[in-house]
């Protein structure tokens, strides 16, 4: 009897240990508001994502978002090759890309969260603060007499380069007259120090500059742009974005390929939700949903205290 009692005691101990261990494991598992997540971000829109992450982590203390900025080409390749599960992009997935996910039995959750703008900038010494988009396209196509000395991009693989190549219906950017660096900050700095150059950057880098970039942004003009078929010039402002007048607007998306209810879903919902959209509104971009406003209506005027 004593023998069986010892065996029973041992089994009970193992069972309780397993239960405690399982509980500890479950407590450390990722949820929509808990855990650690790598988010690969299009580097042209990194400032707005940094803002979202700061507020998200400040609200949900058990969540940690690691932002990894990359060019659009690198970002999409990582997503397709399953090196990245959650990404923030300046374009939606193509039909061909969706087919690749379908073959892998992955259903990407695509959430639009903002309307961004590509800004064209020039040196302050340039008195002309207006530019026709047709002139930029003509310059990229190698046509002369456009009035443009050179175009400056952030990265040959960036979303801004892809966007402008699509507009110009070109496979590659020109070999001459076009300069590329690595970051938007480098573009802004170069244009601020070189007359006649037109920089192509994400507008968020101008509206939310780092402390060390303020001196360079003060030396550039944000240009008003006339569309190919338009007669008016518009700026990358919230008003012109809201009225769909600015010709270089683009939608922003967060794409979640985690395949389970994890932190990617929580962060996506946050960015598209009330708080996330308010952050967008304050950043100079245009939210996809206008945040509501609460008004307190009084039925009578309160007298000042005597």
From TrEMBL:
<dbReference type="InterPro" id="IPR024370">
    <property type="entry name" value="PBP_domain"/>
</dbReference>
<feature type="domain" description="PBP">
    <location>
        <begin position="34"/>
        <end position="273"/>
    </location>
</feature>
<keyword id="KW-0732">Signal</keyword>
<feature type="signal peptide">
    <location>
        <begin position="1"/>
        <end position="20"/>
    </location>
</feature>
<dbReference type="InterPro" id="IPR050811">
    <property type="entry name" value="Phosphate_ABC_transporter"/>
</dbReference>
<dbReference type="Pfam" id="PF12849">
    <property type="entry name" value="PBP_like_2"/>
</dbReference>
<protein>
    <submittedName>
        <fullName>Phosphate ABC transporter substrate-binding protein</fullName>
    </submittedName>
</protein>
């Amino acid at each position: 009897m004593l023998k069986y009692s010892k065996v029973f005691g041992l089994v009970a101990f193992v069972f309780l240990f397993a239960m405690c261990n399982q509980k500890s494991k479950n407590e450390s598992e990722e949820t929509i508001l808990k855990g650690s997540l790598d988010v690969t971000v299009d580097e042209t829109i990194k400032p707005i994502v940094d803002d979202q992450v700061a507020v998200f982590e400040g609200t949900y203390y058990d969540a940690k978002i690691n932002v990894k900025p990359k060019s659009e080409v690198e970002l999409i390749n990582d997503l397709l090759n399953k090196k990245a599960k959650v990404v923030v992009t300046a374009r939606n997935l193509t039909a061909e890309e969706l087919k690749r996910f379908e073959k892998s039995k992955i259903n990407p959750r695509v959430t639009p969260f903002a309307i961004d703008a590509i800004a064209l900038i020039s040196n302050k010494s340039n008195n002309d603060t207006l530019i026709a988009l047709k002139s930029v396209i003509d310059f990229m196509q190698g046509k002369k007499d456009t009035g443009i000395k050179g175009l400056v991009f952030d990265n040959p693989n960036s979303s801004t380069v892809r966007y402008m190549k699509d507009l110009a219906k070109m496979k590659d950017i020109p070999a001459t007259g076009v300069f590329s660096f690595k970051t938007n900050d480098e573009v802004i700095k170069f244009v601020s120090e070189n007359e006649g150059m037109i920089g192509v950057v994400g507008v968020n880098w101008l509206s939310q500059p780092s402390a060390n970039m303020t001196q360079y942004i003060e030396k550039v003009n944000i240009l008003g742009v006339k569309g190919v078929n338009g007669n008016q010039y518009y700026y990358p402002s919230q008003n012109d974005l809201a009225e769909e007048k600015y010709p270089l607007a683009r939608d922003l998306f967060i794409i979640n390929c985690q395949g389970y209810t994890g932190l990617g879903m929580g962060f996506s919902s946050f960015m598209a939700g009330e708080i996330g959209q308010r952050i967008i509104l304050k950043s100079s971009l245009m939210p996809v949903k206008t945040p509501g406003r609460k008004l307190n209506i009084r039925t009578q005027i309160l007298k000042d205290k005597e």
